[in-house]
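User: Second chain of the day. Same drill as before.
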Amino acid sequence: MTFLEAKQELARKLDIDYADIANNDVFSDADLGGYINTACFLAWDFTSWDFAEHSKTATLLTADITRGYVSYPTDIQPSSIYYFAIDGKEYHKKNFNGYKRYFQTNATAQDRYWAEFKRLIFFNTNIAQEGMSIDIYGKRNFQELSADADLLPFSPDTDSQSFSGNSGVVILAYAQALSSEKKMNATQGAVEEKRAYGIFGVLKSQLDLGRATEQPKETPMFEVPDFFRSQKGGRSSSPTGGFSI
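Assistant: Same format as last time:
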């Protein structure tokens, strides 16, 4: 679904002739676009959608090592980074205060640790060198729609690729319009808002279900303790967890 299609659908819900929107006494084209953009923003922030995943690659500079940090990418949401690597090696995120305390008492430590503070990414400079690559994975910021052909979030690649989330966006935009000073129908607005978030909730459940099947390579799917302390060759000879027959 495109930005234009979303505005046209919203106009239909408001019983407006979009083709004659310039002469409408209540809503302007900018009003409809504003409602759609706000709804997109709220939908974007509802959860960590797969289409919002983003990555950045850069090269480490001497100045970065001297400062001990690199700036947060402007197009990645704060605190959304889930993977940070230098020279192809993953660094593990730590609480900023703990990070600072650790390196104050372990100034030459070789641990691959990083922390963030005020949109700055601090990293262990003891093992970093100029020219090394930096890889960052996180959640992209929502880019406001402006051109008629701009795609809604739930059409991540093409106009023909569309999910029910786009309908949720239009319904949420409709809820805002109803609750606005122009319509002053907050009661129905609340009903439509609930419908919209219900759609997002169903999609989130499907996404969560798919992610639940993912398994880190080094972690077994199920950790099953050996309650009976089995030993090779038969029953356990240990009295703990052993049974006599």
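The beta strands are 53-59, 69-71, 83-86, 89-93, 113-117, 120-123, 133-139.

User: Great, on to the next one.
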